Amino acid sequence: QVQLVESGGGLVQAVGSLRLSCAASGIIFSISAMGWYRQAPGKQRELVARITSGGRTIYADSVKGRFTISRDNAKNTVYLQMNSLKPEDTAVYYCNTVRNGRDYWGQGTQVTVSS
pLDDT value at position 34? Predict the structure, then answer.
C-alpha cells in the first residue's frame, strides 16, 4: 500500500527556514510525480509545489523564489526547502502523489511561522 510520511515541520520565526521531507513507499518512486500542498485554518488545501519524475517543477506564485522542491530517487524521498518564511506560510503541509488516478496523502506536518 502507498504510504507517505512527512517530517521536518515546526515553529520558526519569520524570515527563517525549514526543510520538509516526505518518505514514500508502496510506489515506484522514480516514475512518480510528487507534490507538496498546504492547508491553513479555514482555508482550502492548495498546491505549493510539484515535481515530475523528470525533475520539472512548478510552484505557487506565493512561494516562487522562496521554496524549492527536490527529490532523491535513491531514498524515495521528496523535499521542500522553505526559505524567507512568512507568517502567511503557516499551515499543515501535506505530501501527495497520484497512483492509478487516485490521490494519496501523508498525515501532514505543521509549520508555524511567528512574526
Answer: 98
Render pLDDT for 44-78 as a digit per residue (tens, 0 to 9): 999 999 999 999 999 999 999 999 999 999 999 99
- Contact at 8 Å (CB) between 94 and 6? yes
- DSSP class of residue 100? T
Q: Which residues of 87-109 are buried (b: 16+ CB within 10 A; e: fewer)?
A: eebbbbbbbbbeeeeeebebebb
- 13's grid cell: 520565526
Which of the 8 DSSP states describes residue 73?
A: T
Provide φ and ψ at 70, rounded to 5°.
-150, 170
Q: Residue 109: which pLDDT band, with cuts at 50, 70 and 90?
A: very high
Instruction: Say if residues 109 and 21 touch (Cβ distance below 8 Å).
Output: no
Residues paired with residue 71 on neighbouring β-strands, in sequence order: 78
Q: Does residue 105 contact residue 6 with C-beta atoms inside 8 Å? A: no
Are the C-beta atoms of 106 and 36 separated by less than 8 Å? Answer: no
Q: How far apart are CA 78 and CA 89, in angstroms?
A: 19
Find out whether 78 and 93 touch, Cβ atoms under 8 Å: no
